[in-house]
Amino acid sequence: MTTDPPVLGLVAGDGLYPEYIVRGARRRTPELRIVAVGFKGETNPAVIPLCDVYKEFSVGQLSKPFSFLKKNGVQNVIMAGGINPKNILSLRPDLRALSVLMRMPEKNADSLLGAVITEAEKEGFTILPAFTYMEEHMPQPGHIAGPRPTPEQWEDAVFGMQMAKEITRLHIGQSVIVHHGTVVAVEAIEGTNNCIRRGGELGNGKPATLAKVARLGHDMRFDIPTIGPVTIQTCAECGIRQIALEAGKTILLERDRVEQLCKKHKISLHALQLPEQDGPSPSDRPA
Description:
The chain is of the alpha/beta class. 34% of the residues lie in helices and 21% in strands. The radius of gyration is 20 Å and the shape is globular.
C-alpha cells in the first residue's frame, strides 16, 4: 500500500529566500511535495520550476490562495520573501482581505502579516516558523566576514543594535544607520537597501554602521531579518563599513559571496547578542 508524499505550502515573495527554503526542504525530505503561492511582479521566477505546483495571485487576495492551497492538500505553510512596499500601499484586497483590514486599528507590516496568519489558521493551516529548513543560515554570535571591528566600531554596533531594537518596538522598521554614536537614518517602509542609500547620502560618505535586528517579541513565522550580497554591495556603494546583525535571528543568504564582498570592500560583518538575551559575548568584543 502506497502513501501520499508529505506536502508543504510555500507563500513565496521576492528575493532568494523562497528558493533557499525549497532547496533546504528538498535536502531534508526528498519526497516532499511543494505547493507554492506567488505574487504578480513580486515572486522570484527562479523558485517556480523548483516547486511541484505553483500559482500566482495578486497582492491583497486571500480567498483564492487559501482555496488553492487547500485543493492541493496543504496543511503546513511557510511564508518566505518580501513584498515591495509600494505594492503593500496600493494593494487591491478581495472581500475577505477587505474585511480583515477594516477590523485592524493599525496597518503596519507586522499587524498585516499577523492578521493574514490569523485568517490562515481559521482555515486550518499551520504556519511554520520562517526559519524552518534555514537554521544553518542563521549566524550565531561572533565575527562573520571582513576585517575585525575596531573598538570605535564595536561601540557603534552595540549602540546601533539598541536603537534598532527600539524602533522595532514602535513597529517602524528593523534597521538603522549610525556614525560615531549618532543615528543617521532609520528604516521605515522603504526597506533596508533604501535606508542604506539615505544613510550614505546624509553621512556624506563617512564610514558608518548598519545595525539590523528582529523586532521585540518577533513572531518568527514571518519577516525574519535577511541580508545577502545585494545588501553588502549597497553598503559598499554608500560608505557603510560595518554591519551588525542580531545573532540567531537573522538569515544570511549566499554566505560565500557575502564573505568575498566583505573582504573586497573591507566591510566588517558580525553577529551580536543583545543585552535582552545574554549581552554581547566578551570574547567577541575587540581589545
